[in-house]
Amino acid sequence: MKNPTKIHIIVNELSGSGNGKKVSIELIKLLNKKDILFSLNVSRYAGHTICLASTISKNKTVDLIKKNHLLLIIGGDGTLHEALIGLGEEQKHIPLAYIPAGSGNDFAKGLEISKNVTEVLTKILKSKEPKKIDILHFYEHFSNETGYAVNNIGVGFDAATVKHANLSSIKKKLNKIKMGSLTYLVSLIVVLTKQKGFPIEVKIDGVQFNFPSAFLVTVNNHPYFGGGIEISPKASPYDNYIDLIVLEKVSISKIIFLFILMLSNGRHLKHKDVHYFRGSHIHILSNQSEDVQADGEFSGNKSINLSIQPSARYFWI
Predict the structure, then answer these.
(1) Is residue 138 classed exposed, middle or buried when 0-12, 13-18 and 19+ CB atoms within 10 A define those classes?
(2) Predicted confidence (pLDDT) at residue 1 exceeds the cutoff of 60
(3) Looking at the chain, which terminus has fewer C-beta neighbours within 10 angstroms, N or C?
(4) Would you put residue 226 in left (φ > 0), alpha (ψ -120 to 50) or beta?
(5) Would you state the torsion angle of the CA atoms of residues 152, 154, 158, 164, taken in this order, to the nearest 10 degrees?
(6) 173 part of a folded domain
(7) 135 vs 47, 59, 149, 239, 281, CA distance in Å?
(8) What is the model's pLDDT at position 171?
(9) In a domain? residue 1
């Protein structure tokens, strides 16, 4: 297939402690060699990618449907998360190209997208049709908010860990020594003794379950979270289902044991304190304020009334 007329790049240069900028420079060199026109749009602040993706997708002179033009995102999971918000429901038919450049890159791992710029670009240019991918589409009834997640939505322990990782200096320090993927693990250890149990109600395709002392509640689109931890090994972004894991409050020693099982081909799913569900519609209700996160972006400490379901998006991969 012939090369696109133009590639519209949105880059978060700060992702992965500057890796986004390095990846964009390498990509631009490749595009110049191939005589492919491009525009470079730098995301300069939190939420800027939302604005950029929205503006480019609504530009009537830009044909993003037939691959005459491409919208390509460079950054981490948070940057991709913002791009999908920018497209919203109105432009959800527009395919995205993506080159991972973050510290965790869980979405890339879940979809087996290479970090090698040449390899990714070659695959994008050879693609004849965009691939249909499920993402998480949620509606928060309390706040009347609609949103998206490419990886996961978490309540409790993992959200508190995300908050710690984003607010502390650990992430920057580990990224500087090329060990950014350990950020989540380090924060996890710090938060482990602080997180308390909380009551929560979940419904899986209308079937209700109550947990008086939940510790971790995570809805997953693919197996990985926290920089490559395989928390939900059965999850797939291609099956029109979403996966939910609820871990009840247990002793620290048992949590460590479960973490070891998690590293052993998903054996943690068989443990009595780990509750695993799959469905096409998941509802989560908790009147107690808890930390909440989506794709590693902290959403606040609040009570929740969340409806979550898979929604199709399209990617050049």
Answers:
(1) buried
(2) no
(3) N
(4) left
(5) 100
(6) yes
(7) 19, 24, 6, 11, 13
(8) 65
(9) no
CA-nearest of 166, 165, 163, 145 to 155 is 163
Supply the pTM of this predicted model.
0.88
Total domain count for the chain? 2
Question: What are the phi and psi torsion angles at 97 (to 5°)?
Answer: -105, 150
> The dihedral of CA 105, 107, 112, 115: what is its sign?
negative
Answer positive or negative: Cα dihedral of 183, 170, 260, 256: negative
% of residues, the chain, pLDDT over 70? 94
> Is the pLDDT score of 217 beyond 80?
yes
Whether residues 123 and 191 share a domain: the answer is no
One domain, residues 106 and 249: no
Residue 13's contacts (CB-CB under 8 Å, 6 or more residues apart) are 20, 21, 24, 42, 43
End-to-end CA distance of the chain: 14
* Tokens 């009570």 sit on residue: 303
Distance (Å, rounded) from C-alpha 226 to C-alpha 183? 8
User: How much helix, strand and coil, in percent to the nearest 5, is found in the chain?
Assistant: 30, 35, 30
- Examine residue 317 and state whether it is found in any structural domain, yes or no: no
List of residues 6+ apart from 261 with CB closer than 8 A: 267, 268, 271
Answer yes or no: do 200 and 298 share one domain: yes
